[in-house]
Amino acid sequence: FMAWAFTWQVLAKPPASGQNHLTLNEQKAFLQKMRKQLEPIKQLKANFKQVRNISAFQDKLVSHGIFYFQFPDKMRWEVTKPFKSLIIFGGKAAKKYRFKNGSWREKKFTGADFMKSIMEDILLWTKGDFSKTDHLYSITVFKNHIITLKPKNIDASSFISSISLSIERKTMHIRKVRIVDPGKDTVTISFTNLSTAKFKQNKLFKEPPQ
Length: 210
Known about the structure:
This protein is of the alpha+beta class and about 210 residues long. Helices cover about 15% and strands about 40% of the residues.
């Protein structure tokens, strides 16, 4: 999702291939445990730090923000600094906004349909559900609790080479994500202050945003 990448990468290096991954039976058990533990969650909120590395430049692009998930199909992804931007996903479409002159303004962007598809996948993975996307990605679980997904579809692989999810051992929540595109550019997102406590949602997913 590099152009629209709201934007993800794991701070830890991706695991080396070979003996470090779980066996098929171990992987199945791990994913079942993750889904069972996360399935009851209805809402999710966290702060995030995003670091984007572009191979053509030496500088890193860093942004901070907050996201809200309302399962099964609502997401608000808000960048708060160094600028203000927003993506709202309401199940049917993903829309992007930029805060300018005191108000949110919708911004057109390429890859909206593909982004919608990825957001649907993210919502599933956040609940520990990989069963509905296993026809789209080859999945490998490593012993250090990192899940790596590689697109099977040629169209998807033109946007993404791999996605790595770093899983917290105790809670089974996704704490870090790493996305690599075909040009070797990467986006890293790390999550902090994660909470499953109920939050007021009446305005969070409203369009136009408030």
